[in-house]
Specification:
mainly alpha, 2 strands, 84 residues
């Protein structure tokens, strides 16, 4: 009898956990819907984040001798032993 009671207790805990997760997901979706589909960005909105992402990226080129990727404008790869 104690095994059945324990099983029912575990099933109840799992069921309530899924209900709680569903509620959290619904609240998150509702919040995103109310705010236009984007989360609040302290840097000034979604456009400010796009600009910083673009500024942080740079083109990479493969060193023809050792195969290491380096910034496209740099002259040397900096790998020890590379003749370039």
């Amino acid at each position: 009898m104690s095994k059945i009671i324990t099983l029912v207790g575990i099933l109840a805990i799992v069921w309530f956990a899924f209900r709680l997760l569903g509620k959290v997901q619904r609240q998150r979706a509702e919040s995103l819907r109310r705010h236009g589909g984007v989360k609040a960005n302290p840097k000034g909105g979604p456009r400010a984040r796009e600009k910083t992402d673009a500024a942080d990226t740079q083109e990479m080129a493969k060193c023809s001798v050792c195969g290491v990727y380096v910034a496209a404008g740099s002259g040397r790869c900096g790998t020890p032993g590379c003749p370039r």
